[in-house]
Write a structure and sequence with these properties.
The chain is α/β, with parallel strands linked by helices and 306 residues long. The chain has two domains: 125 residues, 3-Layer(aba) Sandwich (Rossmann fold); 133 residues, 3-Layer(aba) Sandwich (Rossmann fold), CATH 3.40.50. 49% of the residues lie in helices and 11% in strands. A four-stranded parallel beta sheet has the order 2-1-3-4, sandwiched between helices. Strands 6-5-7-8 form a four-stranded parallel beta sheet, with helices on both faces. Helix 2 packs across helix 6, helix 7 packs parallel to helix 11 and helix 9 packs across helix 10. The termini are far apart. The relative contact order is 0.12. The protein binds zinc ion (ZN).
Amino acid sequence: MTRLIVALGCVFSLLVACCASAALAAEPVPVFVSILPQKYFVEKVGGALVGVSVMVPPGANPHIYEPRPNQMVALSKAKIYFAVGVTFEETWLPKFASVNPKMRIVHTEDGIEKISLTAHHHHEDKGEKGGHTEATTIHEKDPSAVKDPHVWVSPPEVKTMALNICRTLQEFDPANSSTYLANYQAFVKEIDELDAELRRIFANKKGMKFMVFHPAWGYLARAYGLEQVPVELEGKEPKPAQLKALIEQAGKEGIKVIFVQPQFSTKSAETIAKAIGGQVVFADNLSPEWARNLREQAVKFQAALR
Ligand code: ZN
């Protein structure tokens, strides 16, 4: 009799284990993104069906970020990695693929017409013999190969990214395909409303300029007919001669505000601001509150445009 009870007990616990694993199957799909705004995009499309981890934490610089060991452990359990084309991915995506070969890596920026950064490069190389190596390397590269990665600051480009996210989730989890589609359509509506609002904000500002330390707003400028004037050149602080030229340009154009972002040094921006009697204002392109942040930044840019 005791044996029978034990045997029944075993059957019962097997049943419990079985049901528990069925419940586990319905848990959110673990996915990774590179930067905080992408968390917003993937959660809009995936809703409660996805669990999003962000590789580059708040305050870190996505151009040079190095993932921590505990992030690599979490990554080994992820099903999808949503890349965005930001610089650290060049080095790290191959490593992510070797840590988790089954994980799907999706380039959400696919289909976006990228801005070529070399078109805006200043060629003020004075030919100093010493520190010449880096500049030479950059100039010898195929100019069309250097692209602006900051696609997420422009609502029209984010629509392309949302569609890529939606298609990926539909393929990975066909049972919830219609949910992803409905979420995507609602997100597109939100993006269109934001886009219309930004068009109104910038309606009478076509061709006007704003000065930024780190040139992260090129796609916003392209979408709304503005021009971004970068302080930083090829990822480096400007040399004294370049700084002087920027101060002269700011003075000539009546520019009074230099936008900086929290992830970067503000030294040369402050030098320019002091020289022109202007001010340094924060403009963060990596906020997790993507739509609200863009709206707020647009208003700040509008007031500073010259
Ligand atoms: Zn950047």
